[in-house]
Amino acid sequence: MFSPNTITALRSARSVVVLTGAGVSAESGVPTFRGAGGLWRTYQATSLATPEAFARDPKLVWEFYNYRREVLAPLEPNPGHYAIAAMEARVPEFTLVTQNIDNLHRIAGAKNLVELHGNIWRVRCTNSVCEHSANAQENRDVPVSPLPPRCDACDGLLRPHIVWFGEMLDPDVIRSALKATQACDFFIVAGTSAAVQPAAGMPLLARQEGAYVLEINPERTDLSEAMNESLQETSGVALPHLFEAAFGG
Ligand code: OAD
Q1: Nearest CA to ligand 1 atom 15
Q2: What integer best gives the mean pLDDT of the chain?
Q3: Range of the domain at 235
Q4: Which of 214, 239, 212, 192 is nearest to 82 (CA)?
Q5: What pLDDT digit, counting tens, does each position of 177-194 carry?
Q6: Cα dihedral angle (39, 40, 45, 51), rounded to 10 degrees?
Q7: What whole-number distance in Å separates Cα of residue 96 and Cα of residue 165?
Q8: CATH code of the domain covering residue 176
Q9: Quick check: 206 pLDDT over 90?
């Protein structure tokens, strides 16, 4: 399935970074954002996943996140998530950077995980002087109620701990993703259309810095040409193969 060069490079890698997008969760039943049936086609993203929408109608925005919580709650990691977690246990330095907010990597056992876009099971206070504005809290309620939820400490509005359109990513989170990317010698990008920065630039940065770069995606993307290998396969099939070929037996 993979070229011998890919397997040799992964086997000898001291530091590995895996970057994932919605496609890695597709085989668990999570809808992707773009393409047929994509979430951003079904919903007016700009009217729901923005700070302006939340300021205008927090209840409506929370109803959207309650819907997404309901969809995600029963879903489980797939073999792709588990293969990534297994790889982490075999590589000296390993960082998983995900654009996904669904928590499935953590459920599969990922430890050194950087969540670029937040996590749907966490909430934080919108009152900037409240201690809970910087420290997101876990909230597993399905649905969250009453709407909109309020902070126990200050009665401020709680919001999902998710990066919305038009918002900056947490600079510390970006810093740790880029640091790992620059330091790695093997980089895997799986299940992302590579349409959103800064994630889209990471595979190219890794390559520039001398890493071997592998893409796994059933479709070709804007990144494919620039990769050492680009495999057109689903991550739930390809990642277990990759693990087995490099570390199995
Ligand atoms: P997209 O929906 O843009 O892209 C999903 C990618 O997964 C596509 O390239 C598909 O070809 C691929 N794919 C589909 N099924 C797959 C499978 N079984 N195995 C592997 N790949 C598969 O999702 P992202 O690239 O993750 O941001 O989107 C990036 C960001 O855009 C999201 O995090 C979200 C969105 O706006 C925020 O919400 C902040």
Answers
A1: 23
A2: 95
A3: 4-29+77-117+169-247
A4: 239
A5: 999 999 999 999 999 999
A6: 70
A7: 23
A8: 3.40.50.1220
A9: yes
Q: Whose CA is nearest to atom 32 of ligand 1?
A: 99
Tell me, rounded to whole angstroms, the distance of Cα 100 from its chain centroid.
Answer: 3
Question: Average pLDDT in the 18-43 region?
Answer: 83
Contacts of 126 (CB under 8 A, 6+ apart): 54, 133, 156, 157, 158, 159
Instruction: Return the percentage of the chain with pLDDT > 70, whole number.
Output: 95
Residues 180 and 128 grouped into a single domain: no
Residue 200: is its pLDDT beyond 90?
yes
Work out which ligand 1 atom sits closest to the CA atom of 38. 2
Mean pLDDT within 37-57? 78
Same structural domain for residues 186 and 86? yes
Residue type, 100: N
Catalytic residue numbers?
117
Q: Does the pLDDT at position 44 exceed 80?
A: no
Q: Which residues line ligand 1 (CB under 6 A)?
A: 21-24, 26-27, 32-35, 38, 99, 117, 163, 190-193, 195-196, 217-219, 221, 234-236
